[in-house]
Structures
1.
Amino acid sequence: MGERGSGKAKGRDGDRVVSRRALIVGGAATAVGVGLLARGDLARMWWQVPGIDKPRKPGEVDFKGAEWVAAAAANWRRADRPADYTIDRVVIHVTQGSYQGTLRVFKDPWHGAAAHYVVRKDGHIAQMIRELDVAFHAGNRDYNQRSVGIEHEGFVDRPQDFTDAMYEASARLTAGICRRYGIPVDREHIVGHVEVPGTDHTDPGPHWDWKRYMRLVWAAHERAGAAKA
Ligand SMILES: [Zn+2]
């Protein structure tokens, strides 16, 4: 975050020098110069200006390999994250039902809730809400605004539901989210629904192997970093 902030300030100072030079030219040239500057500023900053809709293509996903399955619009709120809300949490859920059943209720406008992602037992991932937007998954307005929600197919009292493929796929997904928004890979920032203040939900439950999951997230996070470097 700090790095991004300082980079932004430097860019703006550079622009100011240009604009002063444009002013010296005077007259019509000044107006043109300022106009170009403003447009250039906008083009560079669009992703962090709240209230400006980022370009969205139908079917576009934030996690490569995820399948886009749109949730009903009533189950989320359009936003412009991370410009309007900082994303600093990932919330882990368990569906208490099948993958298909979960997709069905998230597509139902009367359900009133949905998560960004649903991970199937075989590791397949559906994205149902863009990370830009606020999904109603945590039952807590503050946490909804600051988090990305991931559902996992299964039941909290059935440890056999949490397969290797599911842990692996979910860990890659969470690692990518942490990379995109600079979220630290730790249990303060990657939490269970049960840990959201005020919740009466117990998921992901006692059989979710946090130690294993965090190790996988960390490894995937490191791999992604190495690939980028
Ligand atoms: Zn939950």
2.
Amino acid sequence: MKIASIDVFPLEADLGNPIGFSQWYYGKKNNLVIKITAEDGTIGWGESYGPSHAIASSIETYFKPLLLGKNPLETECLWQLMWKSYLDFNRLGIFMGAISGIDIALWDLKGKAYDAPVRELLGGTSEPIQCYATGMYFRKGVPDEQMIPQLLTEAESYIKLGFDFLKIKIGKNLDFDCEILEAFRQNFPDTLLAADANHAYNFKESLIIGRLLEKHNYTWFEEPLHPSNLSDMAKLRNLLDVSIASGECEQTRYGFLKLAEAKALDIFQPDPAYCGGISEYLKIQAIATANHIDCIPHCWGLKINQSVSASLLSISPENPGRYEKRKFYLEMDQTEHPIRDCIFKDSHKVKDGYLHFNDLPGLGVSVDEKLLDSFKAVTK
Ligand SMILES: [Mg+2]
């Protein structure tokens, strides 16, 4: 089998209402879809997380010439070929985002070639995966005191859908953050809650917020500090009982090894569409397990990444494990996303807070190519 073609589709869609987190407001959603076709017509779909035009260009100009004609089933060897080809330059960032999307497409293609779901190739089960709802983003132009009731109402809608675990955004300002954390615990006493600061705080601020999260029994504190501030992160982790989670900005086994060595985290959150793909996630998960750290994918994109992340969760080590199984929840972004909700013909169903795998080979998702044109991103 040989790779006959590689196509990239940078996509974008306007949002009806901008959504905000601690760093900026999104008025659009951007994604990069990758299609790899073998000579016999078998197609693999991949997705990269990050600046879509820049990643698309690195695939078009750099990785595509390297991969055409190669055997797409040799996923591990092709990963090493791509990695080695630019080892002398910047080993992370955009190029690793590109490798991630290509690797995902190759695994999808391999599953179809062997007529098996990717989760089975990985050795996983088909048991439904419980999901947590990510939402409660800041609303542009809404005063803080009006926003919190609106976000509580939003949360109720997810609970009605069957979610029993919600992740909210913090990192706006300390007053708002303290208020929303209290309000969510008060209004949802029996719901699992996590809070994501997207690296908004300095050490002292993170300690104030961390103590509040601890008091209100939040499940984890996500990205409290700058992703490179490992020494403060380790200090924070020592001072708090609440789990510290981070890693969506990190890539490769080498990056996560540094996090493990710093003893900075309880939970790794590699994004398969950015950290190096399925092939690299497996190495990151091995580092996590060997260091007694949980590994839960960051997943904030299309249904391709949802399927990848669910497949990877299907092989999650229990770390260390006991008679009553611990649950590892899949991130299920609830924000408006016209691309994610339109372009897929086949996908895994999300119902009552669970992702239920279909029996299709590969990643079990397929793209309606006619619809890709309507979301084509224009380079400005
Ligand atoms: Mg996050």
